[in-house]
Structure formats: C-alpha cells, structure tokens
Specification:
Mean pLDDT is 78; it is low at 1-42, 60-76, 434-452 and 619-649. The protein has an 18-stranded parallel β-sheet, with no helix packed on it. Strands 28-30-36-38 form a four-stranded parallel β-sheet, with no helix packed on it. The protein starts with 5 loop residues before the first strand and ends with a helix. Among the domains are: 1-89, no CATH class; 429-568, Ribonuclease Inhibitor (Leucine-rich repeat, LRR (right-handed beta-alpha superhelix), Alpha-Beta Horseshoe), CATH 3.80.10.10. It is built from six helices and 43 strands. The chain is mainly β. It is globular.
Length: 649
C-alpha cells in the first residue's frame, strides 16, 4: 500500500453492511474491533473475507486504544485504494473525518443504499459522468459540509430511488455567483422524503412543483437567498411537508398558508410583513413556530399556547399577551422580546408546567415582579428587562426568591425597588456546580425519521445580556449559562452574602442601583465567574482580596462607588482598565495611578523637624536684636521676619 500522511480524527462510526451471504436476507453488520477484526463476520465466502481484510488493513492500528470498543479513530487522509473492491457493500458512513480529495470512486459499489460522506474536506466538481450517478439503488445520500464547488449536476435525477438528499454547506455556486434557482432536476425524484439544500447561496423562488412531490416530509433551505414562492399557495397547503425550514433568506410579503400536515415551521430572519395569519391556529400538528427577526405587526394569536416552541422575537407586534394558557399547555419556550407589547403578564402562564424559557424583554409591559411564576417547576430562564416593571423583587416572607430551577434572571432597565433579604439566593439551580452541562442538551430538538435513521433539528434559545461590559446575544443559554442581571433599577441595601452560593454563576451585573455596604466576601467562592459589574452604586469598604484568585474572572467593574483601600493584586484584576476602578476616592494600587504608599500628605521626617526648630531659634535671635533698635528698624525687621516665616512654612 502507498505511504500517506495520517492523523487522529473523529470517526463516529463506520458501519459496513455486507450482503455477502448465500441468501440476501442473511447478512452481517461489521465493526472494526482491534482485538479481533473479523468479529461479527458471518457466512462470507473466503474471497470476500480476503477483500474485506485487505480494506481493513489499510487503516493504521498502531496508535489505537485497544480498550476502545469500536473503530480505531485513525484513518488515512484519503479513501484507501482497495475501497472499490467491496462490491457487496450496502451502507457506507465515512462522516466526520478529515478525508480529502475529489469524490471517491464508487463505480463498483452498485449495491449501495446509504452513502454518507458529510463533514469531510472533499472538494472539486461533481461532473455528470461521476460514478455517483450510477448508484441506482441509493436511498440516502449525504454530502453536507464539504467543499464541492460546481453547479448541481442534472444527473442527480438518475438516482430515481433516492429518498433523502443533503447537499448542505458546500460551495455549489454556478459560475461563482450563486445558483440561480432551485435545482429542477429534483422534480423527477418522486420518492424524495427529505431535502436539505441549506447554506448554498441559492436564489430565486421556491418552485410550485416542489409541493407536488408525493412523499416530501422535510425541506431545509436555511441560509440561502430565496425571495418568494412560485404559483398558487394552495399547492403548499395540500403538500405532505411536515418540517419546513426557511430561516435566513429574503422572503417577503405575507406569510404563506402553511401545509395542513405541518409540525415545524421556522421562518426567522426574513422580511415577512403583515399580521400572523390566524389560520395557523387550524394546524393541529404544529409544535414549533419560529418567526423571529421579521416585520410582523398586529397582535399575537391566542393559539400560541397550543405550541411547544414559540419565538416571535424582534417583530412589531402590539397589544398584550393572550391570557389563554390552559393547564394542559405543552409550551416550553415563549420568546416575545423586542416587540411593542403592553399590559400585564398573563396569569394563566402559571398553568404552563413545562415552561422552561420565558422572555418578554424590550417591550412596554407594566406589572409587578411575577412571584407567582415560581409555581412553574421547570422554569430556568426569565428575562423581563427593558419594560415598565416596578415594585419589590423580595418575596413577602423575606426568604429565598423561590425559583429553584432558575439559571438566568434578567430584570435590568426597570423600576424595581427595595432591598434583598439575606437568604435571597438560597436554593437556586445555579447553586449546583453541575447545573450547566449536557443534561438538557436535546431540550429543543425535533427528530425526523428518514430512511437511514433520525435527523435532529435544534431550536436554540437566545437572550441579550450585558456581559463583560458589552450587550451581546447569548445562545444555548439553557445548557451553558448561569447569569443574574439586576442593573439599572432602584434597588438598595446590602448585597446578601448568599450570592456566594451560586457556584455556577458566570455573569453577575448589579450596576446602576443604590446598593450600600461592603462587597460580599463570598463572591470569592464563585469560581466559575467570568463577568462582574457592580459599578455606579454606593458600596463602601474594600474590594475582597479573594476576588484576585477567581481564575476565570476576565471582566470586573466596581467604578463609581465609595470603595477604599488597595485593589487586590492578581492577574485577572490588574489586567483590567483603569476605568473599572475610577470614581472611588479611596482606592489605590494598580491599575490606578494612585499608589498606596504615597507619603505626600504625611508628617515630614525628623530631619525636617530639626531644621524647623533651628529656623525658629534663629528667628528668636533676630527678634532679640530688633528689641534694641529704633522703631523704624523694629518695623523693618518685623516685616522681614513675617515674610521669611511664611516662606519656610
């Protein structure tokens, strides 16, 4: 075998289904296991075992972890030369490696039904005479996340049994200026159930014939340049499409009438206008409605309580939230931030026991703090910022806040008042050091079955948070973030030491309030803390020395308080800008220019005192001489003495 460069790679699995037995119904799935490379091989003829062993031996097993129960994650940078000899191969998955080169030779693999080459570095053009288009038994083809750069060949229509096709995230360009239209050759593939053309710069309109494919269940054209729909909307209504993903295109005008079978509809980051059609309330199977970053106007339909995931963020919606959330509501995410909503939070939200994410930020909602939401056993994110909320945020019993699953509480830019009781931060989810991680990793994933298995679509929650001095959008907040933002309110009193119980807290912003007292020493216990802002309060005392040892603390701002003493010296603190500590008359030490050892205002040393004493004795002698002189001389000496004494003092 020819020598070639090799490296460790991520290989999720390489599953080879060999139809090598006498009866087509008796076959075996082969996995590479370094202890016994032929475990699981059943009923194969000797020449077929030889071919397979030759193929296996082209993988270098010298650096394998022999305790690994599966394929050794070391594979050649290109497809082995003996690959084409596996003529009985049915399923081939080489996804998520670092394989390079042009499209591999598959001319002899004419029994393939599944081919997955996604997440590699294959490049070049797919020419019409490519052996790929001779795989007439192919059901599933995934070429996503490679670097193919030609137009999409018409010969894809030869794969007339194809049920699932993904060409996502390639360089398909058509004369390097984007594909002008949806690839029309797909209209001949009547068995098609799944099409993914996302991230390919395709322009034009979605063709009317697309909705006539009798088995089409999923269409993903996210992040292209489509701008509309051809033909009558009735074709779309009567289609079999269940998952329709149109996000990040140039669609404009009114929202189309959705298919009767629709379960997931995502059309965020487009230019849709008008009201959200009430017809969506007739789509009984709809669970995901994502219309964020559009220009919708009017009110929010009352049926949003029937869905599981609702994202209407950054539109121009008006009125109040519908108070129609029933006890059986399956709602998990409700994001209506950045609209023009008014009124109060609907009290029926307390019926949504599955609710985990609630964001109403940047509206005109006028209400008191919703203590009643602590009845929701799963609520993890609550953002109320930039509204007209008012009143106390302390519970009536002056105990813990009581939202035990809460990870993010964002209430900035309101008119909340009062102080925080000592036990305010007890029993929060963020108090667990394991509260961030993968336990909710599939929280908003929609699974779609295809001929090969399951495909998962993730719908991510976002919030805008003041973090490290900047307001930025944070994603995946339910699995990666614990944060508190109480900034720009009217809160006062001392900051409770119980804040130190929030072991997983990453960002804390208490700025622009009227907090008094000392900075809690317990902040040093927040080992995961990355961003701390307590600026523009009335805090006094010194900065706790323990903050200098919080290793992840990359941003701290305590400016414009009444702090004093030396700034703790640690890499994370001394690397901050001066502005983070300015406005505290008593603070000294780096990064400020004021030294804690400046002696300009202290009493002069003993040597200077002795000099003053000698000068005073000399002045007395001068006075004695002046007594024996005439009045004019006396006056002259007195003036001289006064001027001299003022100078030395």
């Amino acid at each position: 075998m020819a020598t070639m460069s090799e490296w460790l790679v991520r290989l999720h699995f390489l599953s080879l289904l060999l139809l090598c037995c006498v009866s087509p119904s008796s076959c075996a799935t082969i996995k590479f296991i370094t202890r016994d490379p032929l475990v699981g091989l059943v009923g194969c003829h000797p020449h077929q075992i030889k071919v397979f062993t030759q193929f296996k031996n082209e993988f270098d097993a010298r650096r394998c972890n022999h305790n690994y129960n599966g394929i050794c994650p070391t594979v050649a940078s290109s497809i082995p030369s003996s690959f084409s000899n596996l003529s009985m191969l049915s399923k081939l998955d080489l996804s998520q490696n670092d394989l390079t080169g042009s499209f591999p030779l598959v001319s002899n693999l004419n029994k393939l039904t599944v081919l997955d080459l996604s997440h590699n570095h294959f490049s070049g053009a797919l020419y019409p005479n490519n052996s790929l288009f001779e795989l007439h038994h192919l059901l599933y083809l995934n070429l996503a996340f490679n670097n193919f750069n030609s137009s999409i060949p018409y010969e894809f229509s030869n794969l007339n049994q194809l049920k699932a096709l993904s060409l996502s995230s390639n360089g398909f360009s058509g004369q390097h200026c984007g594909i002008k239209e949806f690839p029309n050759m797909l209209k001949k593939l009547h068995s098609m159930q799944f099409i993914d053309l996302s991230n390919n710069r395709i322009s034009g309109k979605l063709p009317e014939w697309l909705w006539s494919l009798p088995q089409l269940g999923t269409l993903n054209v996210v992040n292209n340049s489509f701008n509309g729909f051809e033909g009558s909307s009735e074709a779309l209504v009567n289609s079999s499409v269940r998952i329709l993903l149109l996000e990040s295109n140039n669609f404009e005008g009114a929202l189309p009438n959705l298919p009767l079978s629709i379960t997931v509809f995502s059309a965020g980051t487009n230019n849709f206008t008008g009201e959200i059609p009430l017809l969506i309330c007739n789509r009984s199977s709809l669970t995901v409605l994502d219309l964020n970053y559009n220009n919708f106007t009017g009110s929010i339909p009352q049926c949003v309580s029937n869905f599981t995931f609702v994202n209407l963020r950054k539109n121009n919606l008006e009125g109040s939230l519908p108070d129609m959330f029933c006890v059986s509501a399956s709602l998990r995410t409700l994001d209506v931030g950045y609209n023009q909503l008014t009124g109060k939070l609907p009290r029926s939200l307390r019926n949504c026991s599955s609710l985990k994410f609630l964001s109403v930020d940047n509206n005109n909602i006028k209400d008191m703090f919703p203590f009643w939401l602590k009845a929701l056993p799963n609520l993890q994110v609550l953002t109320l910022s930039s509204n007209k909320f008012y009143g106390s945020i302390s519970p009536p019993n002056q105990g813990p806040l009581g939202f035990q699953e809460l990870r993010i509480l964002e209430i900035s830019d309101n008119k909340f008042t009062g102080s925080l009781p000592p036990r305010y931060f007890e029993n929060w989810k963020a108090s667990s050091s394991s509260s961030t991680g993968k336990e909710d990793g599939s929280l908003y994933m929609v699974y779609e079955k295809n001929p090969y298995g399951l495909i998962a679509y993730t719908f991510t929650d976002h919030i805008d948070l003041q973090y490290k001095g900047l307001r930025m959008e944070q994603a995946n907040v339910l699995t990666s973030y614990c944060a508190i933002d109480f900034s720009r309110n009217l809160l006062e009193g001392q900051i409770p030491e119980s804040i130190g119980l929030l072991k997983s807290l990453i960002a804390l912003n208490l700025s622009s309030n009227a907090f008094t007292g000392h900075i809690p020493e317990s902040l040093a216990d927040l080992k995961a803390l990355e961003s701390l802002d307590m600026s523009s309060n009335k805090l006094s005392g010194s900065i706790p020395n323990g903050l200098g040892s919080v290793s992840f603390l990359s941003y701290i701002n305590v400016s414009h308080n009444q702090l004093k003493g030396e700034i703790p010296q640690g890499t994370q603190i001394t690397g901050q800008p001066k502005s983070s500590f300015e406005g505290n008359a008593g603070l000294c030490g780096l990064p400020l220019e004021e030294s804690c050892f400046d002696t300009s205002d202290e009493p002069q040393p003993q040597k200077e005192e002795e000099q003053d004493q000698e000068e005073e004795e000399e002045a007395l002698n001068l006075k004695a001489v002046a007594i024996g002189c005439g009045p004019g001389v006396l006056l002259g000496w007195a003036i001289a003495h006064k001027s001299y004494h003022l100078f030395v003092r």
